[in-house]
Design brief:
The protein has about 210 residues and is of the alpha+beta class. Helices cover about 15% and strands about 35% of the residues. It has a 5-stranded antiparallel beta sheet with strand order 2-12-11-10-7, with no helix packed on it. It has a 4-stranded antiparallel beta sheet with strand order 4-3-5-6, with no helix packed on it. The protein is globular. The chain starts with a helix and ends in a 9-residue tail after the last helix.
């Protein structure tokens, strides 16, 4: 009987060790840069279109005032971030003028600003666009690179690349185009490095761990 019990314990222990090993292996993920371009339908004059930079798409949000699942919101030419008065997140922005997008290799330290009752952070200064006035009435993106701390605390850089469905012919206004690079490991780095293994727990701390169900 003792031998049977020992064999039983040995088998259970081996299975447990195997499960633990597989679990640990499954928890190893790679930090990565998310590089993407998005065109957001912001034609609705009443409702916001919300995007998640991590998911790289427009996301459905039931209550923007309580959700951490969005980073930027768009409505015609208006842009909000998930921070300050616009949302519960950590989102704040540092605008870099006279800067080449590709040359921003890391998020600089500085005075990142969230939305306030007086003004949204993207509207500060000259804002993100120039309105040409008559006869064309075009909306043209300004040459500004924005560094964003996202709703859950990661860093991204982005720029506006258009306001039209067809930016060459200027047809289909209210379709905002952006280009961005998001670092998902919590660092301020925007360049490709050797693959860094991080545990899922570490990664989730800077991605989904802070997200609560709506």
């Amino acid at each position: 009987m003792k031998r049977v019990m020992c064999l039983h314990n040995l088998i259970i222990g081996s299975i447990s060790l195997f499960i633990f090993t597989v679990s640990v292996a499954a928890l190893i993920v790679s930090a990565e840069l998310h590089q993407n371009t998005l065109t957001v339908d912001a034609t609705d004059r009443e409702n916001w279109s919300y995007i998640s930079l991590f998911e790289g798409k427009v996301v459905d949000i039931e209550d923007a005032a309580t959700s951490l699942k969005w980073d930027l919101g768009f409505r015609r030419t208006s842009v909000i971030v998930n921070g300050g008065v616009s949302g519960p997140g950590k989102a704040s922005v540092l605008a870099l003028e006279d800067t080449i997008f590709e040359d921003v290799l890391e998020a600089p330290n500085g005075d990142y600003v969230s939305d306030t009752d007086e003004i949204t952070t993207i509207a500060r200064g000259d804002g993100w666009y120039t309105y040409t006035g008559p006869p064309n009435h075009w909306i043209l993106p300004n040459d500004v690179v924005y560094v964003l701390q996202t709703a859950i605390g990661n860093f991204a850089k982005f720029r506006f690349i258009g306001y039209y469905e067809n930016n060459e012919s200027k047809e289909g206004s209210g379709n905002i185009g952006i280009e961005y690079v998001l670092q998902d490991d919590g660092s301020q780095n925007f360049i490709e490095t050797e693959t860094t293994a991080v545990t899922a727990k570490q990664k989730l701390t800077t991605t989904w761990a802070d997200i609560k169900s709506e």
